[in-house]
Write a structure and sequence with these properties.
The protein is an alpha+beta fold. The protein has 7 helices and 21 strands. It has 2 domains: 253 residues, 3-Layer(aba) Sandwich (Aminopeptidase), CATH 3.40.630.10; 71 residues, OB fold (Dihydrolipoamide Acetyltransferase, E2P) (Beta Barrel), CATH 2.40.50.100. The strands form 4 sheets. Strands 5, 6, 7, 8, 9, 10, 11, 12, 13, 14, 16, 19 and 21 form a 13-stranded mixed β-sheet that branches. Helix 4 links the parallel strand 11 and strand 12. The structure holds zinc ion (ZN). Zinc ion binds next to loops.
Length: 357
């Protein structure tokens, strides 16, 4: 039954029900639902209630192409206040049809519905946890942990390639970039890098996964995908809680180019005229005071020791002058004004000539 939304919840497992889904030749299986080649299904994955907080759901669209090919997962809305990814997911889910595809596209339209509806940046409104630090999650944990568990156990295993799409959160500036996972613990770096290069973004950052600790630490959805052995691309566009079309358009065109590069869509490969800047790793700039953040720098080249801004306390006294700990390129940071001791006010990416291994 195309486009029908059905709900169900049973026990501790998320259960997905799709009346009419499941033809003779399943293209993709999610929990107990088969979506047949040439069909689409717009579904709701139920996340049952926990001991202390309510049930929620994950809306997603599965578009199974008429022809064989890989299954690509795009996840939007892990952070509910990052709007361009959610709008781009909605547009792509409406525009892509089974006739267009060799392979299957799974679009998680909003991974974190309670945060989205609550207009809550960074964290879950019930447990105050950052969903993007809560993977792999737990079936009997708090709401963020249960959402992570459903994504880890039901959605990610269905994919061959994962795009986790974010932007600058409520009070963050950000220059659009694509992140790729390299190093010995990442899968198929070459394919991930080629895909990233096809997307027409101005910046590409490599995150090297050299140790299990790097994969495990503060585990995000994209690190979870890496841990599950999938080539993974992080997409970042948009800032400051805005819904600017320029960022939505960049994500949509980037995803279309990526799907073409990966062979799911036909057409000329990337028409990206952009030569991206390349970066290998990033460094944060933590501060030691809370109060009002007055940045003097945003995106662009920074030199070690350069002044990045100052923090004033609630009496108006300047209590900290923040300088760059290293040279590099400021790629995202805190717009403020709220700042708390321990926050990073800028992420400085380390420029390199190339990311070929
Ligand atoms: Zn995010």
């Amino acid at each position: 039954m195309l486009g029908r939304r059905l709900k169900n919840a049973l026990g501790a497992m998320a259960l997905l029900v799709c009346g009419g889904c499941g033809g003779a030749e399943p293209a993709v299986q999610l929990a107990d639902v088969n979506v047949a080649r040439g069909e689409r299904a717009d579904l709701q994955l139920e996340v049952p209630a926990g001991k202390e907080d309510p049930a929620t759901f994950i809306p997603l669209s599965v578009i199974a192409g008429e022809r064989d090919g890989p299954t690509v997962l795009m996840v939007a809305g892990v952070h509910g206040y990052e709007f361009p990814p959610i709008l781009a997911a909605d547009r792509l889910a409406r525009e892509i049809t089974p006739e267009m595809l060799s392979g299957t596209v799974i679009i998680v339209r909003v991974a974190h519905v309670s945060a989205y509806e609550d207009r809550a940046p960074y964290v879950n409104p019930f447990d105050r946890k950052n969903l993007n630090r809560s993977f792999p999650g737990s079936s009997d944990g708090t709401q963020a942990e249960r959402i992570a568990h459903v994504l880890s156990t039901v959605v990610i295993p269905a994919a061959d390639f994962v795009f986790d799409v974010h932007g600058g959160d409520g009070a963050e500036w950000l220059e659009a970039f694509v992140g790729v996972y390299g190093g010995p613990l990442a899968t198929d770096y070459e394919q991930a890098l080629g895909t990233a290069q096809s997307m027409g973004f101005p910046n590409i950052v490599r995150y090297s996964m050299n140790t299990q600790q790097q994969v495990d630490q503060r585990r995000s959805l994209n690190r979870q995908a890496v841990a599950q052995g999938l080539p993974t691309v992080l997409v970042e566009a948009g800032q400051n809680g805005s819904r600017d079309d320029v960022h939505v358009d960049l994500i949509v065109s980037g995803m279309r180019s990526a799907l073409t590069y990966l062979g799911l869509l036909q057409g000329p490969e990337s028409q990206a005229a952009v030569t991206p800047r390349y970066f290998d790793g990033t460094q944060s700039v933590p501060v030691t005071h809370s109060g009002l953040w007055y940045p003097t720098r945003r995106a662009g080249k920074v030199e070690a020791g350069e002044r990045l801004g100052e923090i004033r306390d609630y009496q108006g006294v300047t209590v900290e002058t923040v300088t760059a700990p290293a040279s590099g390129y400021g790629i995202y940071g805190l717009a403020g004004p709220p700042v708390r001791a321990g926050d990073s006010v800028m992420t400085i990416a380390q420029p390199v000539d190339s990311l070929e291994e």
